[in-house]
């Protein structure tokens, strides 16, 4: 049972959160200008990192805020980022 | 006297409280404080069951949870399989029987209660032996919140099985003193009978507390989040591999000592002690002093330790150094041991008569939790054991679990670890004093895995894992087949996979593998230590999450009314929704036909409170909704309603509903019943992470409202009876508009929306008024024959109109165009979620599946939902080309025939064609039609 | 027609809750019909300040913080979100006050009085009862008076409010549709205290 640090509510059990996948996959500024290949990449391609991975979580059962954490996928260790700026990506 | 092998005094049992029990059909008596195993031994019973593969007699080999053999089935008080006799507390009326390595589950439901509790602490101490107690005391004195848990019925750990003294007094005095001190500390939770069986991420540990048969809750699962952990889990003695090492009467040396000191039981009359280390000498000496004849101590080492030699000589105990037991005799019980000299067994073995064969192959630190906590272990040549290597932050492994085997060292290390842990958790902690304890010089053990010089013929009599009946022959077979990884060999031989998870056999098998491969044990390593450390009943894991409490159940404000109608409910997400309202003698089909008919010809009412509702506010609300819906919401006028479709960026439909504009900067959005939470989270995602510049706030208001759909040509008349301040005419209150007013005395927001195609109103009132307004409408409608209807009728009516249900007629691979809802996709917007994907090659394909109608022949049966559709009257050889499947299928009252909706490849281009549904062994012809079956012109919505 | 008196979400569970109470040990009851309003506004905005003045206390800006006035409790729900609790029948007035103070600035005021109801749990066994289904640390040092938290209780989303840390008293805000399930769960979890 991971303890996930919500930047607002503090550490809570992972059951309060919903996973949001890889972070920093931005919605293209003008999707219509993006090629089919790049659009498919945006939609379907995600990293599957072994090691430190930057990912998004939503504190669904708490403050409902989305935020970003860095987690080592081999140990589940989360690198704490106390900055509230982590809320947006 | 409770058994002929019971001593007159000594031990932690209460001779004044006899306990009657029955085992394998025989009545026995034990004492309060006994385990089933100790009580059986007190009565001279060694054989408990037979082995799983070979049916060989098996006895009690240990005194704790490491027991590989003594599996029992409890019959009374409640059937429970696969418990070890060594961990079953004796109680009056207990009925048990031995098992052939496998049990059976009870057939009746367990009447006992199980539950769970969450706990937090600064320091969790696992194990209450000398190290654990010392740790708990140091930590507790700092004021830290401490939990100390031990699987045993009382604290003390290994001290309970010895006659060691602490501060020149019996050890139990110190144990009692520390336990009392802990119990008296307000922030200390003392948990005996509690096995910590798993250690998970971030110091989250799960334990099961055996509260006893008479407790209100039989077992309780503890979910513990600990800031710091001290693992003082002790160690398990390791048996030895030799021919005939499974005969009842063969027992770990320290376990025999525990039976003697803790339970006042002599496990035999004449013993042979076979050892590789010093610890078994204590058993030999103690048992001798208690009246057991020691035939010999057989030590594989060339020289025995001086002090122990002296103590043995004093007592006339013979020591055979450089020797090993190479065979046993006896049928249901060991009657003799063959002793040969090492290394080659050149001299003929001597046969020693005995009824007890004590073995000690060294000690395995119980590193299970340490390892689960992501601590690493290494093989210590010196100890012949796996010991903790790297310990993760927040975890301290101490005492015998860390390979420390003298009481003095365990006490000191425990006390230091306890204060360290408390300090780390932010408390001022001193190292609490520890009692003085005797210690003597120790001669290193000489680990031995396979006895040299034995013929391979004896391989299948040399057991590595007693619980799995796995022998040296099995390991040799695995190695011979080319396996060298301990993980592979474990799976091939099943060693270590039984109820005991290889507590005695794990490292032993690594040693045997190493011998057979001719490599070092360190090179072979050990298999992963996985939870649970000890078997856990599923009931304990389930706790109170069963029956009606298994998962949250959501109900609406009108739920009691539905209950009074005795209607069946459909589960929609966590909601309970009325499915249909059968009248006496009606089955589902006739009830639904009646309900459908009523809505089409008169008036019906449905509880639609479960639809999700989200209040959307802010100056950019319109712009935001334009981005998340495929159609345009900014052009919606205040007071009007629009149906909207939401797609993910991939262009696939994922939710739909109505959007009400309630103000210049305010909308009320509805979602599907099951989709509300997901939609809100998804909207917040876009708002918070992609478009934070948009000034929009979202608030869930699902339960603020109770919502009633009033549908049918007479609905206006019914509503008119309970409202006086709403003009219900089409001109004043047109389709797809809303108005506020009073309905049946309650403030209400009334909408003209219809999911059936009929004239319909949706009446929203505050939750608190839901039931009363529902009843008022029901009364007002009685003269029109108002008919409550459930989800099934709603599904039929909407299907007759070709309205899809997201999640039933769609599956995440369906675009609005596939649904024939291109009209709901705006062509005037620069962007919205999904838009870019509509021009992808895949979404533009001409052979995509379309939502179409299907008509089976009139008078035929309803074709089941999920039916696969094919193009031919006979099934070709596989792979069969598939056209699609039926997503919705019902009997229509209005059409008087079955009909269906289906996703069919190029369906809209094939209207009029006949395809076939594969039902059972038959191919049923179905005609492809438009998806709208009823009132294609939409004439009925205005009444 | 006159305004209806209304039925609270736990009207049929009043006996269940009362029956689960044990004098001196645990008391369970519904606190029904409170006025509840969700407020969203930028905490650094002049509007937030105006709202503070209008309601008589600044909006709490720390996670889990609760502010009180004579009539109101204001619960922190998120960095720009609060739940305001007032006496029965006060929702209209409260919304009007907030909307007026908000003025032309961006924010939202939504009546959620019917969205949730409240179960009050008091007595020495309160914490233990809640711990059976809530993974938060409810120790007096960790969850003190006038602290609140949104979390899960028996897998149900709730807002927990500690009303008194010394004489343990908690309010559980639960969505109306989940309220019965939660009441039944609490009754089951409290059953051991009756024997
Ligand atoms: Zn949060």
Describe it.
The complex is a heterotrimer of chains A (89), B (943) and C (195). Helix content of chain A is 10%, strand content 33%. Chain A is built from one helix and six strands. In chain A, strand 4 (52-58) and strand 5 form a beta hairpin. Among the domains of chain B are: 1-110, Ubiquitin-like (UB roll) (Roll); 114-236 and 365-424, FAD/NAD(P)-binding domain; 239-361, 3-Layer(bba) Sandwich (FAD/NAD(P)-binding domain), CATH 3.50.50.60; 448-519, Arc Repressor Mutant, subunit A, CATH 1.10.10.1100. Chain B has 20 helices and 49 strands. In chain B, strand 18, helix 5 and strand 19 (293-299) form a beta-alpha-beta unit. Chain C is an alpha+beta fold and 195 residues long. Chain C is 24% helix and 32% strand. Chain C has a five-stranded antiparallel beta sheet with strand order 1-7-10-9-8. Chain C has a five-stranded antiparallel beta sheet with strand order 3-4-5-2-6, with helices on one face. Chains B and C meet through strand 8, strand 38 and helix 19 of B and strand 6 and helix 5 of C. Bound molecules: zinc ion. Residues 6, 8-9, 59, 62-63, 65 of chain A line the site of zinc ion (ZN). Zinc ion binds next to loops of chain A.
Strand content range of chain B:
25-35%
Name the helix and strand elements of chain C from N-terminus to C-terminus, one letter apiece: HEEHEEEHEEHEEEH
Tell me the name of the CATH homologous superfamily of one domain in chain B. FAD/NAD(P)-binding domain
The rounded distance between the terminal residues' Cα atoms of chain C is: 49 Å
What count of domains describes the coordinates of chain C? 2
Pfam families (chain B): Fer2_4, GCV_T, GCV_T_C, Pyr_redox_2, SO_alpha_A3
Family (chain B): Belongs to the GcvT family.
Subcellular location (chain B): Cytoplasm
InterPro entries (chain B): 2Fe-2S-bd_N (IPR042204), FAD/NAD-bd_sf (IPR036188), FAD/NAD-binding_dom (IPR023753), GcvT/YgfZ/DmdA (IPR028896), GcvT/YgfZ_C (IPR029043), GcvT_C (IPR013977), GCVT_N (IPR006222), Sarcosine_oxidase_asu (IPR006277)
Please give a quick description of this structure:
Chain B contains 20 helices and 49 strands. With 943 residues, chain B is of the alpha+beta class. Among the domains of chain B are: 1-110, Ubiquitin-like (UB roll) (Roll); 114-236 and 365-424, FAD/NAD(P)-binding domain (3-Layer(bba) Sandwich), CATH 3.50.50.60; 239-361, 3-Layer(bba) Sandwich (FAD/NAD(P)-binding domain), CATH 3.50.50.60; 448-519, Arc Repressor Mutant, subunit A (Orthogonal Bundle), CATH 1.10.10.
């Amino acid at each position: 049972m991971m303890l996930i640090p919500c930047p607002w509510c503090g550490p809570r059990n992972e059951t309060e959160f919903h996973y949001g996948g890889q972070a920093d996959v931005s919605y293209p500024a003008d999707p219509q200008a993006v090629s089919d290949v790049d659009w498919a990449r945006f939609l379907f391609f995600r990293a599957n990192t072994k090691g430190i991975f930057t990912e998004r979580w939503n504190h669904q059962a708490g403050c409902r805020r989305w935020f970003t954490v860095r987690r080592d996928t081999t140990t589940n260790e989360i690198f704490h980022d106390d900055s509230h700026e982590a809320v947006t990506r | 006297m409770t058994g002929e092998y019971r001593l007159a005094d000594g031990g932690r049992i209460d001779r004044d409280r006899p306990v009657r029990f029955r085992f394998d059909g025989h009545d026995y008596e034990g004492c309060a404080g006994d385990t089933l195993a100790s009580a059986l031994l007190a009565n001279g019973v060694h054989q408990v069951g037979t082995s799983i593969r070979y049916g060989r007699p098996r006895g009690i080999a240990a005194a704790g949870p490491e027991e590989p053999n003594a599996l029992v089935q409890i019959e009374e008080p409640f059937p429970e399989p696969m418990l070890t006799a060594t961990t079953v507390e004796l109680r009056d009326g207990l009925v048990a029987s031995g098992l052939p390595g496998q049990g059976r589950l009870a057939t009746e439901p367990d009447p006992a209660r199980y539950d769970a509790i969450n706990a937090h602490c600064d320091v969790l101490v696992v194990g209450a032996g000398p190290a654990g107690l010392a740790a708990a005391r140091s930590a507790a004195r700092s004021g830290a919140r401490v939990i100390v848990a031990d699987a045993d019925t009382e604290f003390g750990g290994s001290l309970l099985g010895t006659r060691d003294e602490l501060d020149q007094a019996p050890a139990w005095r110190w144990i009692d003193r520390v336990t009392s001190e802990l119990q008296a500390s307000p922030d200390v939770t003392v948990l005996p009978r509690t096995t910590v069986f798993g250690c998970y991420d971030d110091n989250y540990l799960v334990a099961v507390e055996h509260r006893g048969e008479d407790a209100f809750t039989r077992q309780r699962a503890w979910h513990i989040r600990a800031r710091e952990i001290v693992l003082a889990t002790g160690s398990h003695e390791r048996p030895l591999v030799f021919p005939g090492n499974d005969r009842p009467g063969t027992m770990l040396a320290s376990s025999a000592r525990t039976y003697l000191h803790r339970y006042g039981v002599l496990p035999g009359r004449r013993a042979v002690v076979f050892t590789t280390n010093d610890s078994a000498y204590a058993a030999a000496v103690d048992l001798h002093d208690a009246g057991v004849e020691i035939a010999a101590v057989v030590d594989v080492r060339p020289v025995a330790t001086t002090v122990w030699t002296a103590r043995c000589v004093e007592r006339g105990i013979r020591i055979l150094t450089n020797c090993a037991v190479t065979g046993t005799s006896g049928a249901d019980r060991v009657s003799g041991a063959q002793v040969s000299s090492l290394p080659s067994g050149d001299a003929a073995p001597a046969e020693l008569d005995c009824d007890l064969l004590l073995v000690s192959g060294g000690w395995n630190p119980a590193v299970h939790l340490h390892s689960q906590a992501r601590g690493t272990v290494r093989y210590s040549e010196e100890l012949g054991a796996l010991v903790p290597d790297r310990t993760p932050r927040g975890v301290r492994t101490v005492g015998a679990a860390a390979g420390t085997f003298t009481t003095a060292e365990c006490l000191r290390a425990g006390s230091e670890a306890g204060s360290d842990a408390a300090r780390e958790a932010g408390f001022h902690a001193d190292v609490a004093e520890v009692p003085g304890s005797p210690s003597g010089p120790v001669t290193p053990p000489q680990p031995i895995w396979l006895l040299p010089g034995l013929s391979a013929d004896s391989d299948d009599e040399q057991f590595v894992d007693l619980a799995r009946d796995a022998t040296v022959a099995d390991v040799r077979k695995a190695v011979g087949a080319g396996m060298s990884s301990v993980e592979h060999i474990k799976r091939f031989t099943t060693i270590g996979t039984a109820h005991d998870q290889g507590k005695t056999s794990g490292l032993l098998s690594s040693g045997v593998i190493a011998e057979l491969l001719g490599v070092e044990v360190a090179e072979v390593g050990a298999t992963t230590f996985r939870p649970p450390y000890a078997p856990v009943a599923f009931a304990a894991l389930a706790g109170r999450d069963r029956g009606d409490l298994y998962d949250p159940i959501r109900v609406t404000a009108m739920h009691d009314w539905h209950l009074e109608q005795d209607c069946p409910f459909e589960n929609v997400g966590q909601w309970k929704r009325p499915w249909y309202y059968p009248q006496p003698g009606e089955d589902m089909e006739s009830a639904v036909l009646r309900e459908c008919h009523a809505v089409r010809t008169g008036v019906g009412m449905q509880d639609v409170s479960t639809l999700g509702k989200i209040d959307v506010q802010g100056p950019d609300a319109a712009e935001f909704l334009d981005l998340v819906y495929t159609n345009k919401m900014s052009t919606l006028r205040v007071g009007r309603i629009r149906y909207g479709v939401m797609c993910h960026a991939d262009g696939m439909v994922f939710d739909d509903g109505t959007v009400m504009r309630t103000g210049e900067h305010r909308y009320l959005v509805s979602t599907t019943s099951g989709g509300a939470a997901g939609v809100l989270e998804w909207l917040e995602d876009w708002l918070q992470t992609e478009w934070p510049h948009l000034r929009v706030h979202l608030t869930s208001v699902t339960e603020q409202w109770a919502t009633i759909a009033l549908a049918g040509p007479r609905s206006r008349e019914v509503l008119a009876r309970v409202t006086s301040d709403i003009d219900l005419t089409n001109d004043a209150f047109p389709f797809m508009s809303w108005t506020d007013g009073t309905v049946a005395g309650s403030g209400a927001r009334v909408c003209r929306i219809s999911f059936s195609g009929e004239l319909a109103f949706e009446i929203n009132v505050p939750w608190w008024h839901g039931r009363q307004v529902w009843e008022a409408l029901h009364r007002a409608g009685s003269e029109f024959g108002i008919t409550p209807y459930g989800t099934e009728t709603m599904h039929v009516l909407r299907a007759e109109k070709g309205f899809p249900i997201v999640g039933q007629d769609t599956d995440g691979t369906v675009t609005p165009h596939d649904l024939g809802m291109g009209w709901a996709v705006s062509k005037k917007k620069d962007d919205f979620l999904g838009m870019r994907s509509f021009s992808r090659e895949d979404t533009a394909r001409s052979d995509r599946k379309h939502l179409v109608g299907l008509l089976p022949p009139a008078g035929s049966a309803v074709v089941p939902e999920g039916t696969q559709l094919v193009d031919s009257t006979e099934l070709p050889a596989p792979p069969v080309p598939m056209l699609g499947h039926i997503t919705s299928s019902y009997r229509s009252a209005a059409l008087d025939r079955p009909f269906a909706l289906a996703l069919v490849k190029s369906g809209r281009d094939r209207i009029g064609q006949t395809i076939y549904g594969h039902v059972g062994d038959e191919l049923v012809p179905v005609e492809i039609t438009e998806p709208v079956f009823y009132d294609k012109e939409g004439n009925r919505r205005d009444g | 027609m006159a305004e209806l008196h209304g039925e609270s979400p736990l009207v049929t569970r009043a006996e269940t809750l009362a029956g689960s109470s044990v004098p001196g040990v645990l008391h369970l009851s519904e606190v029904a019909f409170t006025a509840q309003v969700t407020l969203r506004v930028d905490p650094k905005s002049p509007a937030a300040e105006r709202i503070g003045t209008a309601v008589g206390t600044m909006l709490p800006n720390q996670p889990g913080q609760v502010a009180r006035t004579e009539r109101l409790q204001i619960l922190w729900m998120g960095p720009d979100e609060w739940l305001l609790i007032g006496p029965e029948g006060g929702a209209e007035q409260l919304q009007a006050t907030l909307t007026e103070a908000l003025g032309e600035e961006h924010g939202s005021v939504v009546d959620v009085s019917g969205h949730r109801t409240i179960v009050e749990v008091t007595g020495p066994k309160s914490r233990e009862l809640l711990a059976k289904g809530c993974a938060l640390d409810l120790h007096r040092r960790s969850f003190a008076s006038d602290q609140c938290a949104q979390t899960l209780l028996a897998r149900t989303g709730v807002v927990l409010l500690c009303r008194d840390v010394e004489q343990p008293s908690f309010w559980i805000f639960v969505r109306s549709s989940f309220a019965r399930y939660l009441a039944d769960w609490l009754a089951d979890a409290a059953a051991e205290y009756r024997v």
